[in-house]
UniProtKB/TrEMBL annotation:
It comes from the Eukaryota. This is DUF4371 domain-containing protein.
Amino acid sequence: MRRIGDITRNLELQLQHRAVNFDFFSLALDESCDVCDTAQLLIFMEKLAAMQSMKGTTTGNDLFMEVNACLDTLGLKWDKLAGVTTDGCPNLTGKNVGLFKRMQDKVTEIDPEQKLVFLHCIIHQEVLC
């Protein structure tokens, strides 16, 4: 387990060093349950950037707090976030209290002119067909 932790920390440091030079970045988010029925929030930037185990509820606010913590850990700035892709579940995309709303509010707080691009990925539905 120590070796995995060392690799994880090394990858985080590499991303932190690269993030300084980002003009913009985007995220792909997926929330699903593991075999123990624990909700997992997966955060991707080209590759898996973080996996957060969600304890208790998975409201838009809970998800926002986890994304915010992840961005802080990786040294990513909200004003450089350009877009977010998800599978479209309501707690991510809710227009009043979902994660998207909270993310747009955070970006608007920093720069009122900036609008995030939100995309809906349909791969989950295609796999089920």
